[in-house]
Design brief:
The chain is an all-alpha fold and 400 residues long. It is built from 14 helices and 4 strands. The termini are far apart. The structure holds protoporphyrin IX containing FE.
Length: 400
């Protein structure tokens, strides 16, 4: 009995306080919203049609959700349009961030929409077309010309073309570039092509692994780029033999190849494409790897405006006062566009260095090439090597 005497008032007290609390919520803090809101109504208003709002109705209150009037409460059909307008226009004074980074308080970047649509649309379409078109042209070229053979057959004697350190530098840049190209394409085409094809889960694994590879292998590419530049720049300075080589189309069609030193004009073009485009890809890649640290596009646009270049081409001055997000967006587009161009160049290079030409791969494989191959493709260089070998062997043989 004593127990009941204690329990009953307690039960009464608890239910009474609970009841009054519910009464309070339903009383003063009731939130209302315009009635008869349907998705069709909202879409019709967005199209500019005049759809009248219904009478104000109270929003439903749930027992387990935050009260509608609270700061984080569910507003249901009601929307604070003014707040969203401010957020979209980057004018919301209510946004507070503990991070003082340049982009910390930007919750929505209206100007980024063109970048997003360009990245998913034309960039992917034209970039893919460039790579596909290059492969198609090479396939047609192969069908017409076939493999470029050593015309007079192999001499059976080899000479050294590249030392081990040169081959190491080449394969460092080659393997890293292929990995970077593939993982970069995975990131670019993910949402548009790979998720629809493989699903979110499979793509997520690809994307996480691909991003890790892309970020870390980039250092190997940059190291390879520096090595190749230092080792081969002396052989890639343009000279008179290049003009003759280019005028004769490198002897790609017909018999015989124009005289060339260690690298012919076609290879010099490949070398400078790798150096110039590879450097540009590296710098824009670094600005993506360290967000908001490297500002390249605003100052470049200002310089171009000062030089009057956009005006000369019939455009107005380019907007040079870029937000930090716009800087990143331009860096991403530039990184991808230049990479597409270099990928196309490298696809052609890989073709000619392997399937397209008999005897070429050995130069980067063992480092030794057949003497007859060297005489046919790099006659001036082959003469130099032969005369050096003769000198070393104690014989004197005049250089041709
Ligand atoms: C992955 C397949 C590749 C193959 C089979 C390949 C093959 C070759 C061969 C055989 C040479 C020597 C040509 C000669 O002796 O005259 C060479 C040179 C060269 N490679 Fe590659 N390469 C590949 C990828 C790359 C990549 C990805 C890059 C740069 C991003 C690159 C950059 C160069 C450069 C700059 C040269 C010197 C200039 C030239 O010969 O065109 N290679 N490559």
């Amino acid at each position: 009995m004593t127990f009941l005497r204690i329990l009953l008032p307690l039960v009464f007290f608890v239910s009474f306080t609970g009841f009054t609390a519910a009464q309070d919520t339903a009383g003063d803090t009731t939130v209302t919203a315009p009635g008869h809101q349907t998705l069709e109504d909202i879409l019709a208003r967005q199209r500019g049609e005049d759809v009248p709002f219904g009478a104000e109705i109270p929003l439903p209150q749930t027992d387990n959700g935050a009260p509608a009037a609270d700061q984080l409460g569910t507003l249901g059909g009601a929307s604070d349009s003014e707040l969203w307008r401010e957020i979209r226009a980057d004018e919301a004074t209510a946004v507070v961030a503990s991070n003082n980074g340049p982009a910390a308080k930007v919750l929505m970047q209206e100007g980024g929409m063109w970048w997003l649509t360009f990245r998913e649309g034309p960039l992917l379409t034209y970039g893919g077309a460039l790579l596909g078109g290059t492969m198609l042209l090479l396939a047609i070229f192969f069908l017409i010309r076939g493999r470029i053979k050593i015309e007079h057959g192999r001499a059976g004697v080899t000479i050294e073309r590249f030392k081990w350190i040169e081959r190491f530098g080449h394969w460092l840049i080659a393997v890293s570039f292929v990995l970077l190209g593939l993982t970069g394409l995975i990131q670019l085409a993910g949402r548009k092509l790979l998720i629809p094809a493989f699903g979110h889960e499979a793509f997520s694994t690809f994307a996480i692994a691909g991003k890790w590879v892309h970020n870390n292998v980039s250092w190997a590419f940059m190291l390879g780029l520096i090595m190749v530049f230092v080792m081969w720049i002396a052989h890639n300075l343009p000279d008179r033999t290049d003009i003759n080589w280019l005028l004769k189309g490198g002897g790609i069609f017909g018999k015989g190849h124009p005289p060339a030193k260690k690298f012919n004009a076609g290879q010099k073009l490949i070398f400078w494409s790798v150096i110039v485009l590879g450097t540009s890809i590296s710098v824009s890649g670094l600005s993506l790897l360290f967000p908001f640290e490297i500002t390249m596009f605003g100052p470049t646009f200002a310089k171009l405006n000062d030089l009057g270049i956009p005006q000369l081409l019939g455009f107005g001055p380019i907007e040079a006062a870029l937000t930090p997000q716009e800087e990143m967006q331009y860096a991403q587009l530039w990184h991808a566009i230049v990479s597409f161009v270099l990928m196309a160049v490298i696809i052609a290079h890989i073709y000619i260095g392997s399937l397209g030409m008999e005897g070429a791969f050995e130069a980067m494989g063992s480092g030794e090439v057949d003497l007859e191959w060297a005489r046919e493709h790099h006659s001036i260089w082959a003469d130099e090597v032969e005369s050096e070998q003769s000198k070393a062997a104690g014989k004197t043989q005049p250089a041709q």
